[in-house]
Amino acid sequence: MNPQAMAQAELAKAEPMKALLDGAQQFATARWQASQEAQYNEAALAIEEGMREAEYTLGKSTDIYNVLDGENNWQSSMNELRDATIASVSNRSLQRKLSYAFEQNEIAARFRLRGQIDKKILAREQAAMAARMEAKRQKLSQVGATIEDYNTELGIVINDQAKAVAGGRYSMEGVTKANYALRKDIAADYLANAFNNDPDAAMQLFGMMTLQDEVAAGEITPEEAMARAGISDPYALHVLYNIERGDAVEIIQQNLATSLKFFDAEEKLETEQQEETNQRNKKAYNFVMSVQDNALVSGDTLRQLMGDAKFFSLPEITQQGVSGTFAKQLLRDHLNAQFWASPEQQAKMSEELDTSTQFKFAPAGEGSDARYSELYALASAGMLSIEELNTDTFRITAAQHRELYLVAFNESDESLNKASGILARQFRYNAQQAIGKDDRLAQASKSAFEAADFALRDKALERQIEGKPMTREELRNFALEKIDEFGAAYLEELRAEFETYFSEQVREAFPEIEYDVNDPLGAIDRWYENLDATRQGQVQSKKTTFKRIIRAKYGNRGLGF
User: Fold this and answer.
1) Do residues 368 and 328 lie in contact, with contact meaning Cβ atoms separated by under 8 Å?
2) pLDDT, position 434
3) For the chain, what is the mean pLDDT?
4) CB of 471 closer than 8 Å to CB of 383
5) What are phi and psi of 157, to 5 degrees?
6) Kindly report the CA angle at 227 between 223 and 233, in degrees rounded to 5?
7) Long-range contacts formed by 29-38: CB under 8 A, 24+ apart
8) How many CA atoms lie within 13 A of 526 on its CB side?
9) Which of 189, 225, 523, 541 is the most buried (most CB within 10 A)?
10) 320: buried, middle or exposed (CB in 10 Å: 19+, 13-18, 0-12)?
11) Residue 346's CB: how many other CB atoms inside 10 A?
12) What is the pLDDT at residue 159?
């Protein structure tokens, strides 16, 4: 057989296998290419999504000065994203391809983000400038601002605006308009603050504006313009001359209209108040001439006849009600202090009081100064009783008697508060600390104090109504009586609290101490004296602390120690 033919025959047998191998190689190549393309697409998608998320997040950030500048949060995000995505593929060719795509996407995203941040920075700059201008308006509109303040503050703003104009961030037209609006607002607000309630001042401002041309031409000085217009406020002239005349005149007109309305309303209100006061004083005068000496005049009646301001200046106990005689004195003095009553009415009220008291006084100017001084000293000390005062009327004048009577009343009111303080200290009562407490001692303290204090104040009021305020000694003695009367329940709870303290604190620390109900401090001392020197040194500080607490909280409280 022909050898060549045999070779061809063998090659023909191998053709199917070769075709099979060629197909497998092509499939492997296609699979590798597909895997590389998938890795690229996945990484490219991660790059796009990462940049989009960073762009969105940083675009919403309020820390705008560290997005692309300062800390440069954008670059930090890009570095992290680059490391996470480029390194996800192992093929260097793919890495180079991804790096190129990354750079192209980053440049586009960074420029978009820069546009957003720049807008925010510009908006924030404008907002800050607007806030500064508002602060300048408020500062330069206040009474007390000076021309130097005006020029300095506005000069600073104008200088900063000029930098922004040079940088292309502001327009010259917008800056000029805003600055003029600021000067106009300052003028309007300052005039409102300085002259709003004075129509005459507004008219003087009109006169000053008519001299503006002469000032501008140098024919007269600003000071001469103010003198001719009757204005002594150079700052007002300055703020008005720094805006256009038409606007200045309009501001003055508005100020005049407002001041006229205010003046009319104020005048009307004052007239109404005067009429109301006059009618009330008429009622008070008639009351002085008609009320019975032994009548009880309530606090509400006094308030209606005297008005709130005078009524609430009276001692608190007087506000609760007084006798008819004392009411006459209060109202007579109240009317005379206003210079309301005519000489004839004053004489009638004095005659009514002299008749009602039925006391004989020394003639005016002939009273005993020495006796008056003695009685005044007693009254100031809260020791003058009305009985003692009324026994010496022939040695003092009616005016001195009234003064001493009022001093006795006022001192009685102060002494009442001091007597109430005695009760509070005895019952360990504090109004603020008592709120919300429900332990037995707190309730006993509150109940005992309130009962005793009510009795004390009720007795003091009764004596006030009788026209015989209690002296300091009488109030103190009455308070001590109420302590004995209402203190039993409180002492029981106080003793229980002390026994609990002694058991849970003192004997908890030193169990060997025996409780002595009559001499607990002595029990501690006796225990201490029986200790050796070493033990005494160990417990001395704590022993002293316990004794100090017991004396402070429970000593002199009626427990016998």
Assistant:
1) no
2) 46
3) 76
4) yes
5) -65, -45
6) 65
7) 36/91, 36/94
8) 10
9) 225
10) middle
11) 16
12) 84
pLDDT of amino acid 211: 62
Phi/psi region, residue 243 (left: phi>0; alpha: psi -120 to 50; beta: rest), is: beta
Q: Which of 239-243, 281-285, 363-367 has the lowest mean pLDDT?
A: 363-367
Beta bridge partners of 397: 362
Q: How confident is the model at residue 210 (pLDDT cuts 50, 70, 90)?
A: low
Q: Is the pLDDT of residue 279 over 80?
A: yes
- Contact (CB, 8 A) for 483 and 452: yes
State the number of CA atoms in the 13 A half-sphere of 144 facing the CB.
Answer: 3
Q: Which residues, at least 6 apart from 284, have a Cβ–Cβ distance to it below 8 Å?
A: 305, 306, 331, 334, 335
Distance between CA atoms of 445 and 459, rounded to whole angstroms? 21
Q: Would you state the pLDDT for residue 436?
A: 47
Q: Tell me: pLDDT of 525 over 80.
A: yes
Per the structure block, which two tokens stand in for 503? Answer: 């058991």
Percent of the chain predicted with pLDDT > 70: 77
pLDDT number for residue 432: 44
Query: Token pair of 495, please?
Result: 């003793």
Looking at the chain, how many residues does it have? 561
- What is the C-alpha to C-alpha distance for residues 386 and 408, in angstroms, rounded to an integer? 8
Per-residue pLDDT, averaged over 2-18, amounts to 62
Instruction: List, as own/partner pairs, every contact residues 435-443 make where C-beta atoms lie below 8 angstroms and the sequence separation is at least 24, other chains included.
Output: 440/493, 440/496, 441/490, 441/493, 441/494, 441/496, 441/497, 443/493
Identify the three-state secondary structure at position 266.
helix
When pLDDT is averaged across residues 333-358 and rounded to a whole number, the result is: 79
d(CA 278, CA 343): 16
Q: Residue 13 — very low, low, confident or very high, per pLDDT cuts 50/70/90?
A: low
CB < 8 Å & 24+ apart, contacts of 272-279: 277/307, 277/338, 278/340
Which amino acid, one-letter code, is at 553?
K
486's CB contacts (< 8 A; 6+ apart) are 448, 451, 452, 455
pTM of the model: 0.36
**How far apart (Å, rounded) are the C-alpha atoms in residues 53 and 42?**
16
